[in-house]
User: Fold this.
Amino acid sequence: MVLDHRLFFPATQRNKIYIGDVLSNIPLKKGFVLEIGSGSGEHGVEFQKRFPEIIWQTSDPILEHRKSIISWIDYEELNMKMPRPLEIDVRKSPWPIPLKLIDALEVIISINMIHIAPWECTESFFRDSGKLLKDRKFLILYGPFKIEDKHTSESNELFDKSLKIQNNDWGVRNLEEVNKEAIINGFKQKQLIQMPANNLMLIYKKVSQ
Ligand SMILES: C[S@@+](CC[C@H](N)C(=O)[O-])C[C@H]1O[C@@H](n2cnc3c(N)ncnc32)[C@H](O)[C@@H]1O
Assistant:
């Protein structure tokens, strides 16, 4: 008997269509997408089904999440297509990634991760992504952001407070500081897309140094 470890994240169910719509405008014809902080795995299976030309590689540092991802892959019968999740904590460099993935890496994406982790995770995320992605490849972030150090909505401000109560090192990040990390690691912002529920999707492209 196969145990069902699937987790269900309500926000993930709500935002997956909108995020998928944005991804559909990115040329994803082949190769790998590496997802950092995949959580339950609901995004991973959704996008693997929606973009069958690519291989969606999930990852998460938490065992319970990786078990959920495996269960979602089983449940959606994607075992022949999707690899098992990698154990990646962005702070532990270099990330344990198979060579064949590095050779064919098209996109690195992280959804709702950098505010639920200390700031050093944002720094490590950009630093290792900058080393892994070749020129013209994409780096994508999704989540709530402050702009010029101001919240863009009351709900984001409340959310930020609730994050800081859980862990003082967490918090909604300032867009300008995130962009600074992108630039120092060789990325140029291509697009900033307003998403439902006061979230942003940031699309960066690796540029020649
Ligand atoms: C709010 S959940 C979002 C999960 C998923 N991306 C989604 O949108 O449903 C944040 C995720 O970030 C992961 N995370 C936290 N710290 C991390 C780190 N240092 N490296 C990689 N992932 C991390 C957590 O394990 C968790 O799965």
